Amino acid sequence: MAAVALLSESVLGWSIFALVLLVILAFCWVYIRKYQSRQDSEVISTITAICSLAIALITSALLPVDIFLVSYTKYQNGTYKEWASNNITRQQIEDTVLYGYYTLYSIILFCVFLWIPFVYFYYEEKDDDNINKCLQVKNALKYTVGFVIVCSALLLIGAFVPLNVPANQNSTQWEKVTYLFEELGSSHGLAALSFSISSLTLIGMLAVITYTAYGMSVLPLNLIKGTRNVAYERLENVEDIEEVEHQIEKIKATCTDGRPLSSRDRCALHQLESKLQVLHRRERHLEIAEKNCCTMFCRALRPFKIVCGVFFILVALLFTIALFISNLDKALHSAGINSGFIIFGTNLTNPLNELLLALQPVFPLDYVLITVITMYFVFTSMAGIRNMGIWFFWIRLYKIRPGRTQPQALLFLCMILLLIVLHTSYMIYSLAPQYVMYGSQKYLLQSKLPSVDALMGNSTTGMSKICDADAPEGRSCSLSCARRGCEESV
């Protein structure tokens, strides 16, 4: 019966995962197609952008799945379900999620250091006069080698630097080298991967400070401010048309006596006529947009957008307070710099952590909330990149605009999102450390109570408590893989 229950749970889990995957792919395709330029587009850059964005969203969606699986093995009273009563079964589930993290992180390394740079330089080497694809691929690979060297250096540093040297001082150099490779083989290269991911996470932290923080401000403000009314834009466009027509008539009035126009007037007249054609074309587009059902529907949703904007401002304030309290807790009660300031349990009241714990009894509100929080960071990051554009220090490289975004800008957008997603798991752990560590798990605390009947002696009763750092070691409070990943990264 336990095997049948485990099989049904696995089928249900994989079915939900497949459905989420299809939704993510559809969203990525629509998003990239909406923003990519209609004139400057290429199949390979479009596919790369869609797949990279999908990988970023799937990686961010793995954290709620991780917390759900850790908690779903138990009942609300703290006892394990029948199909999860075996330690081997629980270990297999945890290993599956952990391998999922490592697989997605390896794909992110591949995208950041090889795939996206190659496609970027491949498009940069594109020349209308030169149709030699082999030369184009050769030049793109030549520039991509630099990224591969950096990735190799990070992997080598992560593989060999953390390893302990043999305690025997009389061992030869060959024995020391052999020992290092044996240690590397025993860890299956996870130390190298962890160090490389941690290095990219540090860069992702800078991207979060730059783009995510800005997106958390600009997204609600744009919802409150709203877009310009189509009717108002038509009125402005009509005024511009009348002004241009007046200028054209003024220039033509100078030659009513038959004198030819000067070269300067002819040039100005040609520019004004071209501008008038553009304004008339815009007038037709605005007229169609004003009668569009989507425009009327968006106009009806205006109060709802204002409410959402105010709500997102309150959410941003909640996250700011939660991060401040969590960092203060780390500064006062953490295990120190050697452990990456990891805290065991919560010593200060964290409002977001308390909210998630309060929602545990009502399934599945806590999982919905942690999923919304994860997606909130992703979409605010996308909003920040979209409004700021791609910058290199004080130089703006690309703009993100609907229907006019260059392929290089979309590749940069996806790479930045991949780096931000790497830092999101650690940031969410800082927001709600207790919940991310244990999820909604509980354990049974056995206590002895005196019985009424003296012959019966003491009776044993069990009381379910929420898993925390103070739980006894034998109470089987499993750590989420995201929490274990934070420990390994430091």
UniProtKB/TrEMBL annotation:
Keywords: Cobalamin, Cobalt, Lysosome, Membrane, Transmembrane, Transmembrane helix, Transport. It is a multi-pass membrane protein. It is found in: Lysosome membrane. GO terms for molecular function: cobalamin binding. The chain crosses the membrane at residues 12-32, 44-65, 102-123, 143-163, 190-214, 306-325, 367-397, 409-429. Its main location: membrane. It comes from the Eukaryota. One of its GO terms (cellular component) is lysosomal membrane. Pfam families: LMBR1. PANTHER family: LYSOSOMAL COBALAMIN TRANSPORT ESCORT PROTEIN LMBD1, LYSOSOMAL COBALAMIN TRANSPORTER-RELATED. Belongs to the LIMR family. LMBRD1 subfamily. This is Lysosomal cobalamin transport escort protein LMBD1. It comes from Lepisosteus oculatus.
